């Protein structure tokens, strides 16, 4: 079994106005996996993510990273945020420098690295998100999708172990979504653990190794995505629906075969099995 990289134990968090963000939330995120946090609006996904790198602090309960209790001392938070990189839902809340290059360089410069090392990291991060051509552009001239990729590059330039993304597909058009998905797959293949929040069940079903379901501030289920077909009632119980690929699969009634995870695989199955 894969070891835990992040663990939440009975975490409670209320916002200053009394809203419940997390309510006795317990879960484990496995190292090296692609984990999707699913849940309705207001279920606590963003609040959960903000606890992973110490931006929010539990009022009760514990968060562990790499088997160690989080420390909220400044020096340790800096180290934690180097290891756990977060891409926020809205790129405008993350970008603040004049140019793309300056923005991506900001984090590494603050680590006190040499100018050469910073330059090298920025080049590699921009290449990873396919944005070299935009390096000297003003950030405000970029499209929404490009801004998201600049945020991702800024995180990658810190050489994180865990990548956290809040609703990464929201606001991207279908072509950009496909591009972002293959980018996430490349990063995962390079060894990063990836944890993201989404309300897009079809995307989560196609992409993730593990799905974590949140409801009213709690983690209510943790499912290995390739076993989802046998646990569909969990999704309906929490009002998440059934992935579209699985709905078609259910209608085909091919229970003995391994369910496909994408529309492409489903189409291939249909053609290969001679459905007319
Ligand atoms: N800054 C905030 N101030 C007060 N309440 C908040 C704030 N952010 C989130 N909440 C509340 O906390 C709960 C969980 O929200 P959130 O973590 O944003 O859910 P999700 O990301 O799943 O949509 C909701 O009831 C929401 O209204
Ligand atoms: Mg959210």
From TrEMBL:
Task: Fetch the PROSITE patterns from UniProt.
Answer: ABC_TRANSPORTER_1, ABC_TRANSPORTER_2
Its family remark reads: Belongs to the ABC transporter superfamily.
> Taxonomically, which superkingdom?
Bacteria
Function, as annotated: Part of an ABC transporter complex. Responsible for energy coupling to the transport system.
User: How does this chain sit within the bilayer?
Assistant: Peripheral membrane protein
For the ABC transporter domain, which residue ranges apply? 6-241
GO MF: ATP binding; ATP hydrolysis activity; ATPase-coupled transmembrane transporter activity
- Entry keyword set: ATP-binding, Cell membrane, Membrane, Nucleotide-binding, Translocase, Transport
GO biological process: one example: cobalt ion transport
The protein's name is ABC transporter ATP-binding protein
Q: Which InterPro entries match?
A: AAA+_ATPase (IPR003593), ABC_transporter-like_ATP-bd (IPR003439), ABC_transporter-like_CS (IPR017871), ABC_transpr_CbiO/EcfA_su (IPR015856), Co_trans_ATP-bd (IPR005876), ECF_ABC_transporter_ATP-bd (IPR050095), P-loop_NTPase (IPR027417)
**Taking the first listed entry, what is the main subcellular location of this protein, grouped into a coarse class?**
membrane
Give a single Pfam family match.
Answer: ABC_tran
Subcellular localization, as worded in the UniProt entry: Cell membrane
């Amino acid at each position: 079994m894969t070891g835990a990289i992040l663990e939440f134990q009975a975490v409670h968090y209320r916002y200053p106005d009394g809203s419940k963000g997390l309510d006795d939330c317990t879960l484990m995120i496995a190292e090296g996996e692609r984990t999707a946090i699913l849940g309705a609006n207001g279920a606590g996904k963003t609040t959960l993510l903000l606890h992973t790198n110490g931006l929010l602090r539990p009022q009760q309960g514990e968060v562990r990273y790499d088997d160690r209790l989080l420390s909220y001392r400044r020096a340790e938070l800096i180290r934690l945020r180097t290891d756990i990189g977060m891409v926020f839902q809205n790129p405008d809340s993350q970008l603040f420098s004049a140019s793309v290059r300056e923005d991506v360089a900001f984090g590494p410069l603050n680590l006190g690295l040499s100018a050469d090392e910073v330059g090298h990291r920025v080049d590699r991060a921009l290449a990873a998100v396919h944005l070299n051509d935009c390096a000297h552009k003003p950030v405000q001239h970029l499209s929404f999708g490009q801004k998201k990729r600049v945020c991702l590059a800024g995180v990658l330039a810190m050489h994180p172990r865990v990548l956290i993304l809040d609703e990464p597909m929201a606001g991207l058009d279908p072509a950009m979504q496909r591009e972002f998905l293959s980018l996430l797959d490349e990063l995962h293949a390079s060894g990063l653990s990836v944890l993201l929040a989404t309300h897009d069940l079809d995307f989560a079903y196609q992409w993730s190794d593990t799905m974590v379901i949140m409801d009213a501030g709690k983690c209510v289920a943790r499912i290995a995505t390739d076993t989802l077909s046998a646990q569909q009632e969990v999704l309906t119980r929490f009002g998440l629906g059934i992935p579209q690929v699985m709905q078609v699969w259910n209608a085909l009634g091919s229970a003995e075969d391994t369910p496909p995870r994408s529309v492409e695989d489903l189409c291939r199955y249909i053609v290969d099995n001679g459905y007319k």
